[in-house]
Write a structure and sequence with these properties.
There is one protein chain. With 212 residues, this protein is an alpha/beta fold. It has one domain: Ribonuclease Z/Hydroxyacylglutathione hydrolase-like (Metallo-beta-lactamase, Chain A, 4-Layer Sandwich). The chain has 7 helices and 14 strands. A 6-stranded mixed beta sheet has the order 1-2-3-4-5-6, covered by helices on one side. Strands 7-8-9-10-13-14 form a 6-stranded mixed beta sheet. Helix 1 links the parallel strand 3 and strand 4. The longest helix is centred in the first third of the chain and has 14 residues. The radius of gyration is 16 Å and the shape is globular. This is Glyoxylase-like metal-dependent hydrolase (Beta-lactamase superfamily II). InterPro entries: MBL_Glyoxalase_II, Metallo-B-lactamas, RibonucZ/Hydroxyglut_hydro. Its cofactor is Zn(2+). GO terms for molecular function: hydrolase activity; metal ion binding.
Length: 212
């Protein structure tokens, strides 16, 4: 069974996820640790739990989701996986950090790419990859059907949706992604988002004002 631990990192209050199972193999999703103390918090947890990190997964490559990606790659000797359409987003992170006066970002490169229909495996567990563009051109989410949860990045939040006022965003595509990829799931699927607390598909189907 997959265990999910989340950390809130950086001034952007971004949710970083560590998923692991009984084999102690783990994946890190969207490491937003910017400060050295945040990187140590993440590393200390992995050490204390005796985890073996096997992959770094990115739902998308906006700066707050990749602050700690170079650190994770170097620390654990793993590959960074994302969708190929996120390459221009990732390439722009360093310049955006400079523009916004955010110090400490270490540039990082993707090693491999994921797309709709792929599976990510670790230990005795697997996650299905779905393509959910809109907030970012190559945004993906990771779904565990046996345990009914989604690691959804910045697609769907409790009572809200991802922003679409950034370059390469598409509001119509975002709404379509939610309706065709998330809202086809059962109401009891838990959604772990890139910011804020978890929600459920059923709650958002009923109450999300952006999806009426």
């Amino acid at each position: 069974m997959i265990q999910i631990t989340s950390f809130v990192f950086s001034p952007f209050s971004e949710n970083t996820y560590v998923l692991y199972d009984e084999t102690k193999e783990a994946v890190i999703i969207d490491p937003g640790c910017l400060m050295q103390s945040e990187k140590e918090t993440l590393a200390n947890f992995i050490t204390e739990k005796g985890l073996k990190v096997t992959a770094l997964l990115q739902t998308h490559a906006h700066l707050d989701h990749v602050f700690g990606s170079a650190f994770v790659k170097r620390k654990y000797g793993v590959k960074m996986y994302m969708h190929k359409k996120e390459l221009p987003v990732l390439e722009a992170v360093e310049s955006r950090c400079k523009l916004w006066g955010i110090p400490g970002f270490e540039p990082v490169e993707a090693d491999a790419f994921l797309d709709e229909g792929d599976k990510v495996t670790f230990g005795q567990s697997s996650l299905d990859v779905v393509f959910v563009p809109g907030h970012a051109p190559g945004h993906i989410a990771f779904i565990c059907h046996p345990q009914k949860f989604v690691i959804g990045g910045d697609v769907l939040f409790k009572g809200s949706i991802g922003r679409t006022d950034f370059p390469l965003c598409d509001h119509a595509a975002l709404l379509n992604s939610i309706r065709t990829k998330f809202f086809t799931l059962d109401d009891d699927y838990q959604v772990y988002a890139g910011h804020m607390e978890p929600t459920t598909i059923g709650y958002e189907r009923r109450y999300n004002p952006f999806l009426k």
